[in-house]
Amino acid sequence: MNKLEMLQNPKQRKLLVSAGFSWMFDAMEVGMISFIAAALAKDWNLAPQQIGYLTSINSVGMAVGAATAGYLADRYGRKSILLWTLLIFSIASGLSALATGFGILLVLRFIAGFGLGGELPVASTLVSESVSVQDRGRAVVLLESFWALGWIISAVVAYFVIAQYGWQWGFIIGAVPALYALYLRRAIEDSPKFVKGGAGKRASFVKGFADIWSSEHRRTTIMAWILWFTVVFSYYGMFLWLPSVMGLKGFTLIKSFEYVLIMTLAQLPGYFTAAYFIEKFGRKFVLIVYLILTAVSAIWFGFATTTASLLMAGICLSFFNLGAWGGLYAYTPELYPTKVRSTGVGMAAAFGRVGGVIAPFLVGMLVGKGVAISTIFTIFFVTILIGVAAVAFLGKETKGLELD
Questions:
Q1: How does pLDDT run across 231-287, given as a tens digit for each residue?
Q2: Is the pTM of this model over 0.85?
Q3: pLDDT above 80 (res 205)
């Protein structure tokens, strides 16, 4: 049976696919910057620290966008904020192709990151609130699987377009989602739970922030923030640097793009297996198992020396890490009540993006100082295990619970 057919009605499937394509475009944009950074390093003679700045500024924007959009979505609705964030990042991406200097490019990447970071928690909240309890976890993981499609597209574009015609074309292609927003405006509706809860009657940002840190939600928020930080730190530190790391291991730009494309293809089965297990064994099971295997894959990749070993480690890294991401997005909206759900998800994502700011910059600094790749990936190994401990000891199981 087709995985989308598991959802009970056509309206839910349409929402999943429609929101999924916006998620795919988001992933395409994030993935593209990793390949563009590798190409820019050659065209503009950028130092490793500058590549770190470029990838980190994107995450700074994502942190600000996640917190802001999370609150605005609780106040003005999931649909409208989803559309605005989609427009913001696609327009900023198109303008990035016109950048003539490093400083201008950093400003535009911050703006694009704002839209990117804002869209993700809003889209996951919208889908989570719009499907039945028995399908909710699976639906959000399947939504996350569109991320793999976006990364695959970015890898294909990098191999066939950026490597041949220049990095500007990557940014131009990243502007395409602006057209998709016109379709999305008519294709989706706001979540029934938001509408029933009284659209526009939400608490202030300060009240919402205080609510997620109240005694009722404090343990959950601590767990969610640690989990998001460790997952985002490791993901952006490893994957935004993946093409560049392959270059440091002796491969040409073209060959690096080719191998990263092969690794990226493993993301889809990672999502699909997580979508199956998340309703069978629960959210905590998926997160703990997939994150542990991500940590093992990271240490393997860091110490790999042969081409075959690098490819296999990279494939496992993609498979388990992206399966864990699916569990992360399915789990977080279930932790909070409707009135602060998007705020809770957005703030956790925003704190996580701090890790996305630190990690690429840290890798650039360490690479610039000649630190071994094996040592860098050992840092990611330890970080991921901290996230595992947070879920194991502080997390609650939400499988089968009805959202209020």
A1: 999 988 888 777 777 777 777 766 777 787 888 888 889 988 998 899 899 999 999
A2: no
A3: no
Closest CA to 141 of 360, 391, 334: 334
Burial 334-348 (b: 16+ CB within 10 A, else e): bbbebbbbbbbbbbb
Q: Is 186 exposed, middle or buried (0-12, 13-18, 19+ CB in 10 A)?
A: exposed
Looking up tokens 């404090």 gives 218
Enter the DSSP assignment of 335: G
Nearest Cα residue to 377 out of 238, 253, 267, 243? 238
Tokens of 253: 């730009």
Helices 338-368/48-76 angle, 10° precision: 180
Contacts of 179 (CB under 8 A, 6+ apart): none
Contact 274, 286 (CB under 8 A): yes
Q: Which class for 197: exposed (0-12), middle (13-18), buried (19 or more C-beta within 10 A)? A: middle
Lookup: tokens for 250: 């002796």
